[in-house]
Amino acid sequence: MPHTGSYYAATVNEKTDFAPLQGDQRADVCVIGAGFTGIATALNLAERGYNVHVVEANKVGWGASGRNGGQMISGVAGEKHLSKNADDDLLWDMRWRGHEIIRQRVEQYGIQCDLKYGYVDVAFKPRHMRDLEEDFEKLQKRNFPHEYRLLDKQATRDATGTDAYIGGMLNMGNGHLHPLNLCVGEACAAVARGATIYEGSSVLRIDHGSKPAVITQNGSVTAEHVVIAGNAYHFIEPRLRGIMFPVNSFIIATEPLTDDQVASVNPMDLAICDPNFVLQYYRLSADKRLLFGARINYFGDDPGFIERHHKPLMLKLYPQLQGIKIDYAWGGTIGVPLNRVPQMGRVAPNVFYSQGYSGHGVNVTHLAGEIMADTVAGTMERFDVFASIKPTRFPGAHTFRKPLVALGVLYHQIRDKL
Ligand SMILES: Cc1cc2nc3c(=O)[nH]c(=O)nc-3n(C[C@H](O)[C@H](O)[C@H](O)COP(=O)(O)OP(=O)(O)OC[C@H]3O[C@@H](n4cnc5c(N)ncnc54)[C@H](O)[C@@H]3O)c2cc1C
212 and 206 in contact (C-beta within 8 Å)? Predict the structure, then answer.
């Protein structure tokens, strides 16, 4: 039976141990949630000299940010809606901005998070290949500075070690990393810059006013601005829950592969992702385990169940791994808006939120952190691009999440097959 808990939690560089919030505190900005969105916002604000306090119900990176596939994918979901409010140059910049922020922070703060470049988008069908060809042309038009090329079936096989795909596109501008180590590294950088983080401090409510107060069981933070960054785990502001679906995704980690196995499944150490909505995504960890992720219609966290579901999918791609042991199996929750556009807005004039990145969160949360910090500082250009798109409200998205998400997954599974 695999371990309970994620491979990332077992291999984190440093276990954070920030004291819970006690007593009444004051700050320029209070951020709720210490995932990528909250920490990226806090670090950016701390770098600008703001006094920032981050209030986290669990631990830094406890949510999706410390559990994800670690695939650093370009692009902002729902771009076709965004293109109504932003010109091509701004959109292109936002597509890659998160990557740049991550690269800078890893370098500047010496964050050890196994950041590597190299990514293959794979195709099952000619229509997927046409999408990749369109992406390829966009990269050409922009003189994309990294290596990228379309791959035929054989070249895709050489890169991915499987015959499952008809083609793909290699892009050395995308990459992969250990997400929990990135999140913890950024949190420590924020603290070094003067930010305060409270763990084990569930926010019970926000008392709105000219200086909003964030209230927990044993304390409060009164601030000029509040940024809500609880994403799919958020539970205090009902208006933010009815506008996206909490969808689960799960990952298994094998025991470390032998050199021969590495050479046969992923010789170039690439992150690989298929184009389905009910997608599969996988890569090697730094210690050469295959981390294999897939979305399924399941709401529990039983590692045995996750292994029984995922292992056959992995072996279908890589029959040569028959008999391999699965050491870890875990899952987490992603926020998926109906129109896929990341949701940024206000619940009060001085209370902002950012959430709902639909599986592109590694990159886009870092863009969002910069946009939230800009917004607090009074620069609204990119905030307005998102905030002017009204999210589709779906009453019961949280309460009836299980049957609704099950129906949605079924619908997309059928579409993926067409
Ligand atoms: C299994 C899985 C695989 C994924 N794979 C990828 C991938 O390969 N590439 C990619 O780009 N994206 C991926 N994603 C998506 C990505 O992880 C998320 O989009 C991103 O991490 C969201 O970050 P966040 O900070 O907004 O939310 P989270 O990381 O979920 O953080 C929210 C935090 O807010 C806290 N919180 C909530 N409510 C309160 C409250 N009331 N009081 C205090 N704290 C509160 C929570 O405890 C949590 O720590 C994946 C997600 C999952 C689950």
Answer: yes
CA distances from 3 to 8, 19, 297, 313 (A): 12, 27, 21, 20
Instruction: Note the pLDDT of residue 110.
Output: 98
Q: Left if phi > 0, otherwise alpha if psi is -120 to 50, otherwise beta: which for 80?
A: alpha
Under a CB-based contact definition with an 8 Å cutoff, are residues 362 and 36 in contact?
Answer: yes
CA–centroid distance, 343 to ligand 1, in Å, is 14
Which positions ≥6 away from 243 have C-beta within 8 Å? 337, 338, 343, 356, 391, 392, 393, 394, 397
d(CA 388, CA 322): 51
236 lines ligand 1 (CB under 6 A): yes
Report the pLDDT value the prediction gives residue 35, as an integer from 0 to 100.
98
To test the pocket of ligand 1, the residue of 95, 334, 371 to mutate (highest count of ligand atoms within 8 Å of its CB) is 334
- Phi and psi, residue 233, nearest 5°: -95, -5
Q: Which two tokens stand for residue 46?
A: 């701390």
Domain ranges for the chain, please list them: 7-112+177-245+335-411
148 CA to centre of ligand 1 in angstroms: 29
Beta carbons of 304 and 1 less than 8 angstroms apart: yes
What fold characterizes domain 7-112+177-245+335-411? FAD/NAD(P)-binding domain (3.50.50)
pLDDT tens, residue by residue, 4-38: 789 999 999 999 999 999 999 999 999 999 999 99
Find, among 66, 74, 176, the residue nearest to 116 by Cα: 176
